[in-house]
Amino acid sequence: MVKQSLFVALLTAIGMLVSAEEIRPPLAVEPTGIIETLPGRYPADWFLVHDAAFFHMSDGKVVVLDTTKDSVGEQVQGMFPVSLMGTFIEAQSRGEIFAVETFHTRGTRGDRIDVLTIWDTVNLSAVAEVILPVGKRFMGMPERVALQLMNGDRWLAIFNLSPSTTVTLVDLEARAVMGEVPIPGCSFIYANGDMGLSALCADGRMLTVVLNDDGSEKSRVMSEVFFDSDESPIFERPAVVDNIAYFPAFDGRVQPVAMTGSAALPMASWPLYGSGEETWAPSGIGIDGEDDLGRIYFLMNAEANGVDGMHNAGGSEIWVFDPEARRRVLRIPLEAWGLSLAVSRGEEPKVLVTNPTDMSVELYDGLTGSFIKNITGFGQETPLLLRGAQ
């Protein structure tokens, strides 16, 4: 009987010890409703990575990425959605980001709603929206030339393809549609002075429309023919330095066009390749960029020149040029294949490149060409459009 009592006492003591170890102090009550904020102007090494969610397009998004950090938790500074193959543009002077999106009342069906969503860059919150004409806005692979700021960032021009081509003009102060500018036979929008916009035309010319203070048309003029859509096509995405748009061509040349404010003025083209490099040509999706040093960048493919269909394949190197001297100043061999690129602002530019094999992004030094790091795991699936923060 004594032994049984001792055994029970021992079990009780062990149970009390175990219970004591299992008891933990309550967790502190965490405050709710806290909203982190971002700088009024994003640092120079930040990029806006547009993931169009190519395989489920309603879930497109833009990730604000700090490329100076090493962990995903520090790299991802924020995110905002851009639905259904939308596109966006940052207006640093306004502290706003403008995104053109499409929704349906039943998610994947129902009435279509096209909208311009206005995001606050500090809080990444939607502060306003403008309902756009239904079924007109360009809906395709995201393009930086589908939107253009005008009139001291007070207007936004939006490219439409329905399939007729027009431009919707939005007053960003009034948050209202001002009107529509027809650009028949021409596509996309290129800044041409503060009150002018230009568009590439299928007949090899460029249309320029200059607007009055009320948004009405002041003048309209066509340039001379400077390319052949069949024999010598150019990419629609130029690098722009000092109001000159440098359009890369399928055949390895670059075609400069001066944006004078009243008309587009084509200039003499020149080859990007040198002797023995004749097979090289630009290739990819977001294939060019510019920096604050006045240099232009092109994603290059060693087998693209003269090969049908190779213009979208991507490339193994980035070539950097002094456009005024028409001279290559740097070659950047890529660690992996590249598909799109973007260049940061500032005196020490960085280059961010999409790697299509695993859809990560790679960072390079724009002055030396050296590889810095691979960035992945931040929720990206198809980051096909990259932009340096403004």
CA(first)-CA(last) distance? 85 Å
Mean pLDDT over all positions? 94
Segments where pLDDT lies below 50 for 5+ residues? none
Structural class, judged by helices and strands?
mainly beta
- Integer-rounded radius of gyration: 26 Å
Beta-strand level of the residues, as a percent range? 35-45%
User: How much helix, percentage-wise, in residues?
Assistant: under 10%
The profile of the biggest β sheet is: 5 strands, antiparallel
Work out the helix count.
Answer: 2
* Shape verdict: globular
* Total strand segments: 30
Describe what you observe in this structure:
There is one protein chain. This protein is mainly β. The protein contains two helices and 30 strands. The strands form seven sheets. Strands 16, 17, 18, 19 and 20 form a five-stranded antiparallel sheet that branches. The protein is 6% helix and 45% strand. It is globular and about 105 Å long.
Helix and strand topology:
Layout: H1 2-22, E1 46-51, E2 61-66, H2 72-75, E3 76-81, E4 87-91, E5 96-104, E6 112-120, E7 126-131, E8 147-150, E9 155-161, E10 165-171, E11 176-182, E12 186-191, E13 196-201, E14 206-211, E15 217-222, E16 239-241, E17 244-248, E18 253-259, E19 264-266, E20 270-271, E21 281-282, E22 288-290, E23 296-301, E24 315-322, E25 327-338, E26 340-343, E27 350-355, E28 360-365, E29 371-375, E30 383-388
Antiparallel strand pairs: 1-2, 1-30, 2-3, 4-5, 5-6, 6-7, 8-9, 9-10, 10-11, 12-13, 13-14, 14-15, 16-17, 17-18, 18-19, 18-20, 21-23, 22-23, 23-24, 24-25, 26-27, 27-28, 28-29
